[in-house]
Amino acid sequence: MKKVVIGLSGGVDSSVAAYVLKEQGYEVIALFMKNWHNTTGVLQGDCPFDDDYNFAQMVARKLDIPFHMVDLSDQYRKRVVDYMFDEYSRGRTPNPDVLCNREIKFDAFMDAALELGADYVATGHYCRKDTVTVNGKPIHRLLAGVDTNKDQSYFLCQLSQQQLEKALFPIGDMVKPEARRIAVELALASAQRKDSQGICFVGKVDLPVFLQQKLEAKEGSIIEIPKDFAHSKDTSNSLEDISKEYKYQPRDGKKVGTHQGAHFYTIGQRKGLNVGGTLEPLFVLSTDVENNIIYVGQGQDHPGLYRDALFIPKDEIHWVRPDKVLRIGESKDFLVRIRYRQPLQEAKLHRLAEGMYITFSQPQRGIASGQFAAWYTDDELIGSGVIC
User: Fold this and answer.
1) Strand pairing of 27-34 and 127-134?
2) Domains, the chain, ranges and CATH?
3) At what angle do helices 176-185 and 12-23 cross, to 10 degrees?
4) How far apart are CA 297 and CA 222, in angstroms?
5) 337 Rama class: left (phi>0) / alpha (psi -120 to 50) / beta
6) Which of 84, 126, 187, 370 sits CB 3.0–4.6 Å from 93 for a disulfide?
7) Catalytic residues, which ones?
8) Which of 163, 150, 46 minimizes the C-alpha distance to 104?
9) Distance from CA of residue 281 to its chain's centroid?
């Protein structure tokens, strides 16, 4: 009998995943991860560790599977949270959930699971895996979940073939209401728990308060850029030109308020500006952390929110499917998303010596450096990279 260690979080998805594995005939072992101790900035009552642990333990007892705990908080702090602090300090927008899967769930946690004798490691992600043979070698494909509203393949966009080889996703063929129904019918303790929100294993946070653990608050100016500002970068229309972020100067607009640190904000953000008296809501267009300035614009349709292309440096390109690598000079059509739950967008990837350019059929809102862009063919995730 094959042995599977499942990351049991105390939520409904991993609980049902554990049940499905047991029904499929695996020997199932539950392993709970403790990844964060500090509650600074965490909103009160949002998925505290003790509750998660207790719910996970109750589910394991109900399913009659062994229950263990592993403390990965040191690795999580070094490999996810410190990375997040560093990215924000540079005015970038990281996705800690993607890093958490690459660095913790399918690395440090996988190591702990293998020490328990696991043949496979399972999670409650809404995605699927299958294996095909290419040139006589097995290739593991990462596929979107059947539930298009819950598909979580994007969060796994940095996984390698070695990580996918050991991975199982038992509920990838389910829709969320079905998982809830199963949990209720089994009377699992987690059946009515809300989905977790916020930063992976930290919870829902007041981001500025959370970041102030390492990033200093400092007053700066908020400059409003008018909609009629000339946003064309230059007439060459080169890939390099159209992929650049818009850069503004204080003289390009007018001061409309102050903030407590440009590194606390990200492109496309609306909340937390505390500036009133405008005809339309204000959105962050750009942040200048060196000069501690935020540039904003009125309305969802402000041209400063949209870009036609992005760039991924060569060292940040990752192929889930190494047999699909684009060679230098090649271009190919893919479907691309730059954030979770964003509908897939038609785009073309252009591989050059310095990296990868992605041009979109339609301008994209809120492209920010530090985000992950993931590209798909139909429902298969082919690769990803960190936006420069």
Assistant:
1) unpaired
2) 3-210 (3.40.50.620), 216-388 (2.40.30.10)
3) 70
4) 10
5) beta
6) 370
7) 100, 200
8) 163
9) 26
This prediction has a pTM of: 0.92
- The answer to whether the beta carbons of residues 29 and 35 sit under 8 Å apart is no
In this structure, what are the phi and psi dihedrals at residue 374, rounded to the nearest 5 degrees?
Answer: -125, 140
SS3 of 31, please?
A: strand
With contact defined as beta carbons under 8 Å apart, do 223 and 295 qualify?
Answer: yes
Q: What is d(CA 115, CA 335) in angstroms, rounded to the nearest whole number?
A: 38
Who contacts 292 (Cβ-Cβ below 8 Å, separation ≥6)?
A: 218, 219, 220, 221, 261, 262
Q: Which residues contact 289 (CB under 8 A, 6 or more apart)?
A: 89, 90, 91, 262, 263
89 three-state secondary structure: helix
What confidence tier does 358 reach under pLDDT thresholds 50, 70, 90?
very high
Does the pLDDT at position 42 exceed 90?
Answer: no
Q: Answer for the pair 93, 370: CB distance below 8 angstroms, yes or no.
A: yes
Closest CA to 377 of 71, 144, 108, 168: 144
User: Closest by alpha carbon to 259, among 304, 221, 308?
Assistant: 221
The Cα–Cα gap between 312 and 365 comes to 17
Q: Which residues pair with 143 in a beta bridge?
A: 128, 380
pLDDT tens digits, 294-330? 999 999 999 999 999 999 999 999 999 999 999 999 9
Distance of CA 276 to the CA centre of its chain: 31
Structure tokens at 387: 């936006």
Residue 47's pLDDT band (boundaries 50, 70, 90)?
Answer: very low
What is the distance between the alpha carbons of residues 47 and 29, in angstroms, rounded to a whole number?
23
Distance CA 162, CA 183 (A): 32
